[in-house]
Structures are given as C-alpha cells and as structure tokens.
C-alpha cells in the first residue's frame, strides 16, 4: 500500500505590507502519495508558487504562514527550527527546480563547485567523493562532456544545459520529493520536451514524488497523474488530470482551456497585399568567441546567406531553437547588430542609409521580458512618451495627450501614467512595452518571444491585442517565437531556421500542418497538446 509522503492542511499565507495584512493563499490543502505526481496550475498571482515556497521555507520576507500545517513523512514540519529544516529536509529530502536557472545558479562559481557544495552540505564525505558524485549526476541528466562542464560557469551554458544543471543539483542528495516550478517556460519546444522526458525518467529511476507547477496545461497533462487548479489563492478544482481537463466542473478551468484552444486555429489567412516592404538578401553574420593561449578563437556562423521578403500588412514568423539564428536576423533588421555580408532593403532604400531616428520611425521592437527592458526608476508615462521626447517636433502637452491615447489603445487607462513597472503585472508590463513601440507609429513591429513568460489567458489577450493593432494601425509584424501555437495563431507566413539557415518556408498552416523538412517535423512532434473537445 502506498504511503502518504506529504500532507498540507488548510494553509493560509499572508503578506504584511506597511502593517496591512493581505491574504494571498486561503485554505490550501494537498495530499501526495510516495512516488506520485501532482500538478498545480493557474494564472500568475493564483498562489501556486507561493504555496510551494511556504513548504520549502523560501517565502518572501513580507510573507508569512498564519494558519495550517505541513506534514512530511508523518512529521509535522511547520514548527521545526530553520536550522533543523535546512540541514535535514531542504535540499536533502525536498528539492526544488526553479523557473529561471540563470538567476538560481551563482554566476561567480563554476557548475562543479555549486554541485559539490550542495552535496557536501548534507553529507560528510571527501571533496573527491563529492566531485565524483557531481559528475555522476551531470551524466544522469544527460549533459555531455560532464568533466568539462564542471569547470564552466552558468553563462557559458545554454538555457537547456543550465536547466539540466539545476536538475542535477536538485537530485544530487536523492530527495524523496521534487518540486518543479515552471522548469520549461523559457525553453524551446524541443528542449522543453527533452527536459520533461528527462524529469519523468529520473523520477521513475530514483523513485521520487513530484509537484509540478505550471501554467502550461499541455505539459501538465503529460506529466502529472493528479492536478490542482488555483485561482486567487484558492483551490477551485482538483482530481485526476484526465478527468479535470476533459470534464472541468468550474468556469475558471473551462476558461483556461478555452484560452489555450483559442490559439489552436486552423483557418487560412490572406495576406493583405503583396506590396514589398522589406527585402533581406544573402545576409550572414559571424561571431568570434574569445580564446586563450591554449585554445584558439572560435568562430560561430550565426546566420548563413539568409534571404526572404516581408510584405505590407502581413505577419511573418521566424521559428527555430535557441541558436538557430532567428533573433540575430531580427537584430540585423532592427539595426541592433551589423551584418557581415548581404543587404537589407527597406521600402526601396538600403537599411544602412537610414539614420537611427529614421529607422526608429520605421521599425520598433517588442522584447521577450518587458520587466528587464522597462527602466524601473521611471514611470509608465515617462517610458511610453520617451520616444516622442527624443523628437523635438512634439510639445509637452502633445506628448502627454499622445501617451494617454496610446495607453488606452493597448487597454490601459491614464491611471497607469504615474505607476512604476514593479507595480504592474506581467501582462500589463507587456502592454506598456507594446505602447512604447507603437507610439511612433512604425511600419514594422518586431516581436521577439512576446508571450513566452505569460499565462495562457494573458498570452491570449496580448496576441488579440497585436492582431487588433495590426488591423487598426496597418502594422507589419515580424514574430520571433518557439511557441508553435502562437505562430499558428498570429502569423500568415513562416520561416523555419536551424543553425543559421532557412530550412523551410511558406504559408503558416501549410508548413506546420504538413512539414516537409525533418527539422520542422521534429519541432511539431515536440509540442505538448491538450486534446480539444467541446466545452460547456
């Protein structure tokens, strides 16, 4: 008979903000058997991550548990001391994989040192034994050249490689419970599948239980036996994953599924015109990596003789894995990176002939993470209006009026003008980033992974907004993405890139539904989907 490993009863979590108590998680309860998996899904702010941070004692400074109990292996761990918890449980019996490994790993220490210290903290062994253990677990997570990786720093690894290091660090002490918090959100679809399959294999091999936190219902449906659905700090639905996703009882679960499937469109889109707006011809870009006395400089060919056209009023998607060259192409078009060979012609004029101000009036970017691209020290009004302030043709009153107009256009009221980025949600920050990009009324909007870190409901809103702006302002969109559903929903044509080359191109539905190239087939086979059915 399977034993209960973890039981959480009526957990309440609150924040003390300037002596105002704000309840964020209410009566959270969970029961997990040994070697079983459970998923927790919901939008940002629903309390899914916060409830697990309470379990691991990693709550933010202002947060505290004001009610409830946590029992792990028949022991109430709610009131044990921090010293005992961190020495005997955290990292040893319960481990956590975080969403962004680059911020979770220490940038000034090598991968090997961090793995060894994690093992040495909980085990009285020699450093040579810890070294062997670290290599063993780097090999267990299928990281190539494990010995060489031990001497590398986090920034020298790709996103997928860093996530494998995080998994190795979480497993090195053979925990009984693994908590995975959005472990694949920022990864390419193929790398995402590799990481999910790897986690499933390791859980089976090591006999662990897992709690998987995600807003990706497709991933949860393939990894978890049971599921909890959270909204505004409350569990609104729970049960067997297949039953909850196929026969949801709550409107909130229904709405999550509707937003997910609303992206799964399958209709032909007509390009508004065949008027050529931008032509890219045989562009190439080389990067030289620094070397040393023993190691010569390495040359990477990021883009190799790439050619394509962009027509007025269309949305062109460029898809591929990290390192495929898609973002480099976007940077060349946007003037953020110079090309080594080839040419880019915008409206009949070579791109290098445009001044920075002229190019800004033609092309504007919307980046992946709005929080890192919005200055935290400036108000939303200042940020959105700054492109106009750099142009002396506009008076202060004209700028203020235009900022209000643009904010309303992206679905934000004038009340946001005096707020700061930290006071906004992820979806609101992305709307601000879009507002800043369109205030100059550019002809081309380059969107680099504009929804990768957003919940499915917010993602749907942002994509609908982009479609609306495209129709209203007659903007042409270049979409850089690894999310196949987003590409299918938003784009008219698609270019598939790998290792700096375009392998396949054409109408979006033709390419994605009937891929001819093996690489495109691999991308499509890596997509996790929840079966579509008729909802109430």
3D architecture notes:
- By secondary structure, this protein is α/β, with parallel strands linked by helices.
- The chain is built from 21 helices and 20 strands.
- Helix 7 runs parallel beside helix 8 and helix 17 packs parallel to helix 18.
- It starts with a strand and ends in an 11-residue tail after the last helix.
Describe the structure concisely.
By secondary structure, this protein is an alpha/beta fold. It is built from 21 helices and 20 strands.
Tell me the layout of helices and strands.
Layout (H helix, E strand, L loop, with lengths): L3 E14 L2 E14 L3 E5 L6 H8 L7 E10 L2 E2 L5 H7 L5 E4 L3 H4 L6 H12 L4 H14 L5 H5 L8 H13 L5 E5 L7 H18 L2 E6 L2 H7 L2 E6 L2 E7 H6 L4 H12 L13 E14 L8 E14 L3 E5 L6 H9 L6 E6 L2 E2 L5 H7 E4 L3 H4 L6 H10 L6 H14 L16 H13 L5 E5 L7 H18 L2 E6 L2 H7 L2 E6 L2 E7 H6 L4 H8 L11
Parallel strand pairs: 3-8, 3-9, 6-7, 7-8, 13-18, 13-19, 16-17, 17-18
Antiparallel strand pairs: 1-2, 1-4, 4-5, 9-10, 11-12, 11-14, 14-15, 19-20
Helix pairs in contact: 4-5, 5-7, 7-8, 11-18, 15-16, 15-17, 16-17, 17-18
């Amino acid at each position: 008979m399977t034993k209960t490993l973890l039981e959480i009863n009526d957990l309440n979590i609150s924040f003390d903000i300037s002596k105002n108590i704000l309840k964020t998680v209410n009566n959270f309860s969970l029961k997990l058997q040994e070697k079983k998996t459970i998923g927790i899904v919901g939008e940002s702010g629903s309390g899914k991550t916060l409830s697990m941070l309470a379990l691991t004692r990693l709550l933010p400074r202002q947060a505290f548990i004001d009610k409830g109990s946590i029992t792990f292996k028949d022991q109430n761990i709610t009131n044990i001391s921090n010293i005992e918890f961190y020495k005997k449980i955290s990292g040893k019996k319960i481990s956590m994989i975080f969403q962004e490994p680059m911020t979770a790993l220490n940038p000034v220490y090598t991968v090997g040192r961090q793995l060894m210290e994690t093992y040495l903290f909980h085990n009285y062994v020699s450093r040579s034994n810890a070294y062997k253990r670290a290599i063993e677990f780097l090999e267990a997570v299928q990281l190539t050249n494990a010995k060489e990786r031990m001497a590398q720093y986090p920034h020298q690894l790709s996103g997928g490689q860093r996530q494998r290091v995080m998994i190795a660090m979480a497993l090195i002490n053979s925990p009984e419970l693994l908590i995975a918090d959005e472990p694949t959100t920022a990864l390419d679809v193929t790398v995402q599948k590799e990481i999910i399959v790897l986690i499933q294999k390791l859980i089976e091999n090591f006999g662990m239980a897992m709690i998987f936190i995600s807003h990706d219902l497709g991933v949860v449906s393939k990894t978890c036996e049971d599921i909890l659905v959270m909204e505004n700090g409350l569990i609104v639905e729970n049960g067997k994953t297949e039953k909850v996703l196929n026969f949801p009882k709550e409107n909130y679960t229904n709405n999550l599924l509707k937003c997910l499937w609303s992206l799964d469109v399958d209709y032909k889109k007509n390009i508004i015109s065949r008027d050529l707006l931008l032509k890219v011809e045989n562009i190439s870009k080389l990067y030289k990596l620094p070397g040393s006395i023993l190691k010569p400089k390495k040359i990477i060919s990021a883009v190799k003789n790439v050619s394509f056209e962009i027509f007025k009023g269309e949305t062109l998607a460029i898809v591929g894995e990290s390192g495929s060259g898609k973002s480099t192409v976007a940077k060349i078009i946007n003037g953020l990176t110079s090309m080594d060979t080839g040419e880019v012609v915008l409206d009949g004029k070579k791109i290098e002939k445009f001044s920075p101000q002229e190019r800004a009036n033609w092309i504007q970017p919307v980046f992946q993470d709005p929080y890192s691209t919005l200055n935290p020290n400036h108000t939303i009004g200042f940020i959105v209006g700054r492109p106009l302030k750099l142009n002396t043709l506009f008076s202060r009153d004209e700028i203020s009026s235009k900022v209000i107009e643009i904010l309303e256009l992206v679905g934000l009221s004038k009340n946001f003008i005096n707020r700061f980025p930290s006071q906004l949600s992820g979806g609101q920050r992305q709307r601000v980033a879009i507002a800043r990009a369109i205030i100059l009324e550019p002809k081309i909007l380059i969107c680099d992974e504009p929804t990768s870190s957003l919940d499915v409901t917010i993602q749907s809103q942002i994509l609908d907004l982009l479609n609306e702006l495209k129709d209203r302002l007659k903007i042409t969109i270049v979409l850089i993405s690894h999310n196949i559903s987003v590409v299918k929903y938003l784009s008219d044509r698609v270019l598939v890139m790998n290792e700096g080359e375009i392998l396949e191109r054409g109408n979006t539905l033709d390419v994605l539904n009937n891929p001819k190239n093996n690489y495109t087939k691999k991308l499509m086979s890596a997509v996790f989907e929840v079966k579509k059915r008729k909802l109430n």
